[in-house]
Specification:
Elements: E1 4-17, E2 21-28, E3 32-38, E4 57-64, E5 69-78, H1 81-85, H2 87-103, H3 111-124, H4 131-146, H5 163-174, H6 177-180, H7 187-204
Parallel strand pairs: 3-5
Antiparallel strand pairs: 1-2, 1-4, 2-3, 4-5
Length: 217
């Protein structure tokens, strides 16, 4: 007999399956990254229609199978409507979700990764914040969270590792999440941060992140 399992998480991605179904990848607090099928979710009158969209955050009620889950219902607390209405923000969100997918695993709880992704999505909805700073900050903090972050001097040449940049790196690496994305920088500092974070991703991520090619230039 199958038992319903409530898992708290966020939809990283989804794709259509068959005529009406949808396959989801959900990052969950309790069980890490899971795959699930939402039967009939693409029907216009399906109660699962909204809860299977990318970036939906809430509690998902699932039945556990041998190799995947089946979605029964969901209580969504944030659909990130403001993010979805902003085309550039949506592209960044897809990229962040792909990084989260890369670093997450099934069976390993992902509370910190979910909190980081959630706060990054919230930052993307704030028109006052620089999206390039948000991107670089998310890249760096994700690598730090993975436990695989090399020393800054292994990423950027010593001549460019000023004391101010070291302080900025430490802020991004250790700042509380409610303050993480709320800082400003001058144009040159933004460029340096971007160079650093992109080199860091190239060093630490051993696959091509397809969504990165879609980011605004």
């Amino acid at each position: 007999m199958a038992y319903e399992v409530p898992l708290n998480g966020i939809v990283l991605s989804g794709q259509p399956i068959g005529e009406y179904d949808r396959r989801l990848v959900i990052l969950t607090k309790e069980r890490g990254k899971i795959s699930c099928f939402a039967r009939g979710a693409r029907k216009p009158n399906s109660p699962l229609l909204g809860s299977t969209r990318s970036f939906a955050f809430g509690t998902f009620y699932l039945y556990e199978g041998r190799s995947s889950y089946s979605l029964h219902s969901a209580q969504i607390s944030n659909y990130f409507e403001e993010l979805i209405k902003d085309y550039d923000a949506t592209l960044y969100a897809c990229y962040f979700a792909e990084i989260a997918d890369y670093y997450s695993h099934e069976g390993i709880e992902a509370k910190d990764a979910i909190n980081l992704l959630y706060m990054a999505f919230c930052a993307l909805t704030d028109q006052r914040l620089n999206k390039e700073i948000i991107k670089s900050t998310y890249e760096i903090r994700s690598v730090v969270l993975s436990g695989e972050c090399p020393p800054p001097e292994n990423v950027l040449s010593s001549s460019k590792l000023t004391e101010n940049f070291r302080k900025l790196f430490m802020y991004i690496a250790a700042s509380p999440l409610d303050k993480l994305f709320k800082f400003t920088l001058g144009d040159e500092s933004v460029k340096q941060l971007k160079i650093f974070s992109e080199r860091l991703i190239r060093i630490c991520v051993d696959k091509k992140l397809k969504s990165k090619d879609m980011l605004p230039r």
